[in-house]
Write a structure and sequence with these properties.
Keywords: Membrane, Transmembrane, Transmembrane helix. By secondary structure, the protein is mainly alpha-helical. It is 66% helix and 0% strand.
């Protein structure tokens, strides 16, 4: 049940982050990492991709929550759902940072591609 609630929260927050991203780098909300806050370009890219990642993590948590409700876990269900959430959040952050590092240099400038 917890995974369903958390999944819905992640989907809603991800949608808000994608559709209504913070216009400028701030201390209140947004996808805030050292690379995402280098400049406005990295910030804007991180908000859109971070929102998408949050939606995907929310869907995965929702599916896990439905599965846990239909097929009760033999272990502590709440603990399993929390572990799934933490691992999912870590994977999301690593994937987001990897995505940003493919597009931007460490100083925040866009990588140039030679064709």
């Amino acid at each position: 049940m917890v995974s369903l609630i958390v999944g819905a929260a992640f989907i809603i927050c991800g949608f808000i982050l994608m559709k209504f991203p913070p216009k400028s780098i701030n201390d209140i909300y947004g996808y805030r990492t050292s690379l995402s806050m280098k400049n406005q370009d990295t910030w804007d890219t991180a908000q859109k991709y971070g929102g998408y990642s949050m939606i995907m993590l929310g869907i995965a948590n929702g599916i896990f929550g439905i599965w846990a409700a239909i097929q009760p876990l033999t272990v502590n269900g709440l603990a399993a759902q929390m572990i799934f959430l933490v691992i999912g959040a870590i994977v999301m952050l690593v994937a987001d940072e990897k995505h940003l590092s493919k597009i931007f240099n460490k100083d925040g400038s866009r990588k140039s591609y030679v064709k």
